[in-house]
Amino acid sequence: MEMQIVPAPGWARLANELLREKGTAILLGAADSGKSTLARYLLESLLRKSASVCLVDCDVGQSVLGLPGTITSAVFKHPSDLSRFRPQGIFFVGSDNPAKSMGGMIEGAARMAALCKKKKADITLVDTTGLISGWAGKALKTGKVRRLKPRHIMAIERKGELEQILSAMKALPPEDGKGVRVHRLRPSEHAHNTGRLRRASYREKKFRDYFSGATVIKFPFEKVRFFRKGRALDIKAALEPDGEVKPGCLAGLGWGEEETLGLGIFEGVDPSGVVIMTPVSLARARRVDRISFGEIMAGDFLAARKK
Ligand SMILES: Nc1ncnc2c1ncn2[C@@H]1O[C@H](COP(=O)(O)OP(=O)(O)OP(=O)(O)O)[C@@H](O)[C@H]1O
Ligand SMILES: [Mg+2]
Asked: Is residue 5 part of a domain?
């Protein structure tokens, strides 16, 4: 995201408060309210003040740090670290629709935030999707706050759209007895709507860049366990013509209980294994023992280019 950030009134003070109080800070706001822009501003400004910052990107649609369909994290310790702006931790959700993968969204946010704790970042910034309305928005955001127990909630609100979430938060027990601080902010006057087409082409570019150097690797059936949406999968049944897994779908390549090494696009099967296109190196791919199929048809994004 290359752009000129125009800081809104109150942003500099907010950065100072985060610097003083530390802890986890979660951003809440509708789509296009400027969450990711504020996250970037805070990231840069805190790094310049010599704090270490962990960014957790929970936006599975307009992901900034990682790819759509994933929740990612990375720790930055110095402004120059921003030149390597890529995930260190990946949690594969497999969907770019938060309402359809609530459990995975909350679990992923919690795991990525736990990674920040382990790496002892002074401040953890949690960027989120714009899903805030209705039952789904409330369940997702309150669920996340319950799990992450942030010290700060940064609520970017135009006209009352976050109130149902914020009032539900009041009932939550505070972290370390210190209480949650809600920082209310108005959207920057420079925040503008991104539009469906721009969103789709952003996702396409993300996939294209990631898979540009990919090769095709086979993963033998007997070495790998298969999952979909967090549940174990009978791979043979899932691959039947009316099964759940289709060529072109995005897949998370995992190792051990926690770690996702990278992503792939499922191409098909041969008698002994599944064939996946991935930029993960052959050496690292040998460690993969868990493949999780998603519902994003990433293959379609790449096919669009060839036409
Ligand atoms: N302070 C600002 N200065 C300049 N441009 C801004 C500012 N705030 C937002 N924008 C622009 O407005 C658009 C939407 O902002 P942004 O992507 O930060 O919103 P968001 O809340 O993260 O949206 P989403 O929910 O889709 O992730 C972007 O194109 C961004 O560049
Ligand atoms: Mg955003």
From this structure: no
Distance 264 CA to ligand 2 centre (A): 24
pLDDT digits (tens, 9 = 90+) for 242-275: 888 999 999 999 998 778 999 999 999 988 999 9
- pTM of structure: 0.94
Give the mutation target among 4, 6, 28, 32 for probing the ligand 1 site: most ligand atoms within 8 A of CB. Answer: 32
Q: In this structure, are residues 293 and 251 in contact, taking their beta carbons and an 8 Å threshold?
A: yes
Domain hosting 234: range is: 197-306
Beta bridge partners of 254: 260, 290
User: Rounded to an integer, what distance in angstroms lies between the CA atom of residue 304 and that of residue 177?
Assistant: 52
Q: Assess if residue 293 is contained within a domain.
A: yes
128 lines ligand 1 (CB under 6 A): no
> What are the structure tokens assigned to 179, written together?
């209480």
Q: Ligand 1 atom 11: the closest Cα is on which residue? A: 191
* Residue 277, strand partner residues: 216, 265
Question: Is the same domain home to 178 and 221?
Answer: no
* Burial label, 268 (beta-carbon count in 10 A; 0-12, 13-18, 19+): exposed
Dihedral sign computed on CA atoms, order 252, 256, 258, 260: negative
* In a domain? residue 192: no
Cβ partners under 8 Å of residue 305, min gap 6: 204, 208
